[in-house]
Write a structure and sequence with these properties.
By secondary structure, the protein is mostly helical. The chain is 71% helix and 0% strand. The chain is flat, with a radius of gyration of 17 Å. The chain starts with a helix and ends with a helix.
């Protein structure tokens, strides 16, 4: 992948993310805050953006979204690659969601 292709992919990801985030925020703000892991202030800003503003912001060369998972415990639960592997995939994903929700609540 060339540098230009990578920049195009980043811009497309930004546009998709901003459009999805704005739709989620406008439909159900509380759920959007939880699912997107963002502050209410950021949600208010994104929710109020015009189409032109979204296009302008998305055209940058920095990826706007980021990984919320930043520790081994959650990664191991999501991938189910831990030493004590559990066969019930739904249970491990639920556990990971609970951990991420708790961390979101702590951050707010």
């Amino acid at each position: 992948m060339t540098n230009e292709q990578m920049l195009t992919e980043i811009r497309e990801a930004n546009l998709t993310y901003l459009m999805l985030a704005q739709n989620m925020i406008r439909q159900d703000k509380a759920e959007a805050l939880f699912r997107l892991g963002m502050s209410e202030e950021a949600a208010n800003l994104i929710g109020a953006l015009s189409s032109g503003q979204i296009l302008k912001i998305a055209s940058g060369n920095m990826l706007l979204c980021r990984f919320r998972v930043d520790d081994d415990i959650v990664w191991n639960l999501l991938t189910n690659h831990s030493v004590n592997k559990v066969d019930n995939d739904a249970t491990t994903k639920l556990h990971a969601s609970i951990l991420m929700a708790g961390r979101f609540a702590e951050a707010v």
